[in-house]
Amino acid sequence: MTEPLLSISGLTKAYPGVVANDDVSFDIQTGEVHALLGENGAGKTTLVKMIYGLVKPDQGTMQMHGRPFAPNEPRAARRAGVGMVFQHFSLFDALSVAENVALGMENTPPMRQLSSRIRDVSATYGLPLDPGRTVGDLSAGERQRVEIIRCLLQDPKLLIMDEPTSVLTPQEVDILFETLRKLTSEGVAILYISHKLEEIRRLCDQATILRHGRKVATCVPSETSAREMAELMVGSSFANPKRTDHLPGDVVLELKNLSLPAPSAFGISLKNINLSLHAGEILGLAGVAGNGQDELLAALSGEIRTRPDAVSFQGTPIGHKGPTARRALGVLAAPEERLGHAAAPDMSLTENAALTAITRENLQSGGFLNWSATREFAQSIVLKFDVRTPGVEVTASALSGGNLQKFVIGREVLQRPVVFVVNQPTWGVDAAAAAAIRQALLDLAAKGAGVICISQDLDELLEISDRFAALNEGRMSGIRPAQGLSVEEIGLMMGGAHGMEVAHVSD
Amino acid sequence: MDLSSINPTLLLASLIVASTPILLAALGELVVERAGVLNLGVEGMMITGAICGFAIAVNTGSPFVGFIAAAMGGALLALLFGVLTQFALANQVASGLALTLFGLGLSALLGQGYQGIKPPPTNSLDIPFLSDLPILGPILFSHDLMVYLALALVAAVWFVLNRTRAGLILRAVGENHGAAHALGYKVIRIRIMAILFGGACAGLGGAYLSLVRVPQWTEGMTAGSGWIALALVVFASWKAGRILLGAWLFGGISVLQLNLQAAGVAIPVEYLSMSPYLITILVLVIMSADKSRAPGSLGRTFHASD
Amino acid sequence: MFRIEKRPQPSRLWTYLTPLVAVVITMIVGGALFAALGKNPVEAIRTIFWDPLFGEFSFYYRPQLLVKAAPLILIAIGLSLGFRAGIWNIGAEGQYIIGALTGAGVGLAFYPLEAAYIFPLMVLAGALGGWAWGMIPAVLKTRFGTNEILVSLMLVYVAEQLLAKMALGLLRNPDGRGFPGSRNLQQYSSAHNAEIIAGTGVHWGVVAALIAVIFAYILFTRHVLGFHIRLTGQSPKAARFAGVNPARLALICLGLSGALAGLAGMFEVSGPAGQINIDFNVGYGFTAIIVAFLGRLHPVGILLAGLLLALTFIGGENAESNLGLPAAAIQMFQGMLLFFLLAVDVLTHYRLRWKSAEVA
Q: Most A CBs within 10 Å: which of B168, B183, B306, as the mutation test of the A interface?
């Protein structure tokens, strides 16, 4: 066997209360795509941060080409040939593409020269980009290209990619994989972090699986089934959500030509959205991040008001009503961002229960809050949704992502919504919590509520939704029955390849 | 009332003098805010600079040494703000207010015994030939070194921010400190340096008030200049060139109202005196329509938690 | 080296402890400062903090304490409403002046009529005056998105000029032989905010301050509006989601804090100060910012902090006359207090850990 490109042995990193990585060892070979698999919180991100010099390990060593490798800052890692594409992009909205690329490079050439190099590289790898454009105006897929090109310009030996496909349509994923294969054929190794198992089976040569910070297994993905890998990640098998058959009822929510100007400088405008939601159905809305999901949720929750008849509830126009009035009617919502939008980080769970439940749960009289009733309501959420917490007086920020999400979803579900709109219900949530949340949404629909589930996770949508549509640049595709839809069809609904080209492989 | 007593040439020349303190302070604050930090303590740093510069100039007899002391005094006070907000992670608004309240007290204390003294004169350069030009000479070419230094600083700040890598990094830190950190830039170190620069500039601006513009020391003599400098940064949409324009506008207003007072216009003195503040409010209202240009991380606390 | 690490939740203990620690550090550093000025630090600290309360002349100073604390508390309670919501009214000094002007103006308009309704009308006018002055930044903020910090502060300078104009013009005492300043309201019994119980210092402003403390306490702990104020301050997006209208909240907070500052000005001009004059305002509006923060924006904390800062005012005057300590030293002392509070405050939300050097 040849000498590995990067050899990791015994890496350990502890944070107060958690051991993020515990004695992790594995090798990455030149030119291979190595998958790093694990649930949220398994320690994948900490591990790559150590390789990229952002975090210093407590114990353990790394070797690159047999020589000790201990980057004490990202600059050192970049100099050694490590590039990283972040999950939450490390980009600057107000700066241009070229400026963004320059910030991630050592020894930046003059701007003019840099711009032409960006054009060259983007043409070679099928990642078209205009160096002069402001990054804030780019789509999620284009923003990822900026990150990739930033790495490619430095001739990396190892490219770390953290959940790169979560912002891409299926067609865009295909093109990205072409680009990655071209890179590996040139000898670049790729450390690929993901929890999408089918993708890993298609792309990766080797996989290292982490659970609770420890390496629990290695496998060759193409020879392992997705089910087996999932069980290695989670450590046990669990039931898939069960759906009961029932007939959809009357229309509960209707959108007619809903249009909205972009609410912020780099926001998305909604364009002519029409839909009707029936009682008892789940309408799945797919789409790559930043295509109007947040804006649509805000327009439905009442945070952004529209002309009255753009949104109507059981035939009554409500577009002009605010969140409180809509809640009174039974239109509830749960936004994507748990901390800071759906919940206030530094407030207790009791106070966070009051955040949306004052009206429907009768928690006030004459403007005065009934805290003991609120506490009871918070406790019932904790109990019925299995929120792991020492009590309802702890702050929301002290809960893990999965537990807080169960609390947020539970808070709305227990208020007996007639219409429930949720954005990214299981984003960044461990598998067990995700399954519980999906089950709760299915049960809610079975009891007769209309549910709109906005998500970037296609598997999730196909699993729970009755009908399906996609958002693309603020427009909505036609609505189709979810059953029998192929991934290619969904991809086209999401906007296809968005003008991306296939890499010009060795021409 | 005798409006003919107002000499337009002298008016424009004194406009440039009157605009210099707020120009300096606002330039410093511009750099601080582009780095993503909101320092509301400009007033406190200015007045500290005013007394430091004044006291040292009186004791050494050299306005030059006074200006250096003023810059150091301002920077030292700014360092307090930096430690509070960058290391102790204190709220920037509260810390800025604390800085102003503290600076006003500190300067009053330091200024005991300096009231009613005349500082050593800061000589104007009187550039040969150019300063003898009619009209343009007195307006543009017969000022002291600090005026030209301030103008040069406008160009320098513009150049550094827009044309150098250091400026790019500074803007990146102000735009998105999380991303800058992820790329390995030392957010806190860069911000501390920007804060120190801002303090030094505010100190210089304050000293220009006490050593040239007025020139003497009285308690609370900045009378809101620091706050006007803060407003100027908003007015300028965080652009160096527009700071100059804004400073001239405000300098012009304050000079004009003083001249009108002297000319005995029928408007009561108090109403003229409040005009710069009212116009600042007006300008803020007009400019606040355009919020998009504020740096993305402005005023937010950065803590590298992971 | 030490590393700062975020606590999973804010520490209760340190929330209460930090103001005390800040006071102690300020006393130590302040003492060193007084020593540097050539004064005996122990004597200076005793003169400022001990003698007014327990010294020989405490019978005179204790009522004074209430007189000085009342406007500070009244203003700080108002400020805390906004500060908790992330709305920064720092122009209370201006609202205080305008409240005094409108309050005194109404009273003087009735002169020399004696009637029981005059004083209540003055109270109303003072509150309305301060409210109106506070609504200027509020309306500009909600209509145009103008920064309320800068506008409210600019309006302080405008109010000061108005005060001068009024003291020399409209409100000048016609029998004052040309001296600036209005008639003395202490000599106009219908408009006089006199002591309610003689010798205690308790005037209507003190009563109003206590009512404000209780009102704020109930608002924050029990009322939906108080909950929404806290929510907005902690997480504006979550507040919007909860259904809070941020514009309405800004109008309420700035209006209320303006009204309370205006009330403070009115009680001051009709009581302890007695008349409108050029030097009527002494910076209560700015000191109240320190009071609000030192009191942790909590009504009871503000009550205590107001008394403490009032003590520094009284003790400072004594130290000035007895020890020759410059008045500016006290001003700086108060500024230092806020500084140290903010610095120590880090311990509430973060903890220090002894750790090996970390790549950051």
A: B183
Q: Percentage of chain A surpassing pLDDT 70?
A: 95
Tell me, yes or no, if C247 comes closer than 8 A to chain A by beta carbon: no
Q: Which chains touch B (3 or more CB pairs under 8 A)?
A: A, C
Q: Does B96 score more than 90 pLDDT?
A: yes
As a whole number of angstroms, the distance between CA A107 and CA A388 comes to: 49
Helix (H) or strand (E) holding A84: strand A82-85
Rg (CA), chain A: 24
Distance CA B196, CA B35 (A): 12
- Strands in A206-211's sheet, in edge-to-edge order, are A82-85, A158-162, A189-194, A33-37, A206-211, A214-219
CA distances from C188 to A152, B213, C106, C109, C270 (A): 84, 46, 13, 12, 9
Q: In this structure, are residues C77 and C295 in contact, taking their beta carbons and an 8 Å threshold? A: no
Instruction: State the Cα–Cα distance between residues C156 and C291, nearest whole angstrom.
Output: 19
Distance of CA A452 to the CA centre of its chain: 18
What residue type is A69 in one-letter code?
F
Instruction: List CB contacts (< 8 A) between B306 and chain A.
Output: 15, 46, 49, 55
Residues of C in contact with B288 (CB under 8 A): 140, 144-147
SS3 B198: helix
A369 has which bridge partners?
A364
For the segment C300-310, the average pLDDT, to the nearest whole number, is 94
Q: What's the one-letter identity of residue B25?
A: A
Whether A337 contacts C237, CB under 8 Å: yes
- Name the pTM for this structure: 0.89
CB contact under 8 A, A93 and B292: no
Q: Predicted confidence band at B306 (pLDDT cuts at 50, 70, 90)?
A: very low
Rounded Cα distance, A384 and A378, in Å: 10
Reported as a single tens digit per residue, the pLDDT across B20-47 is: 999 999 999 999 999 999 999 999 999 9
* Cβ atoms < 10 Å from Cβ of A236: 7
Helix axes B8-34, B225-235, angle to 10 degrees: 70
Mean pLDDT, residues A333-353 taken together: 94
Shortest CA distance from B178: residue in chain A: A90
Cα A192 to Cα A194: distance, rounded to the nearest angstrom:
6
Query: Is it the case that residue A451 has pLDDT exceeding 80?
Result: yes
Residue A366, phi-psi category: left (phi > 0), alpha (psi -120 to 50), beta (remainder): left
What ipTM was reported for this prediction? 0.88
Residue C172 falls in which region: left (phi positive, over 0), alpha (psi -120 to 50) or beta: beta
- pLDDT at residue number B157: 96
| CB interface of B with A, residues 174-233, below 8 Å | 175-176, 178-180, 182-185
Q: What is the DSSP letter of C169?
A: T
d(C-alpha A300, C-alpha B53), whole Å: 59
Phi, psi dihedral angles at A422 (to 5 degrees): -135, 140
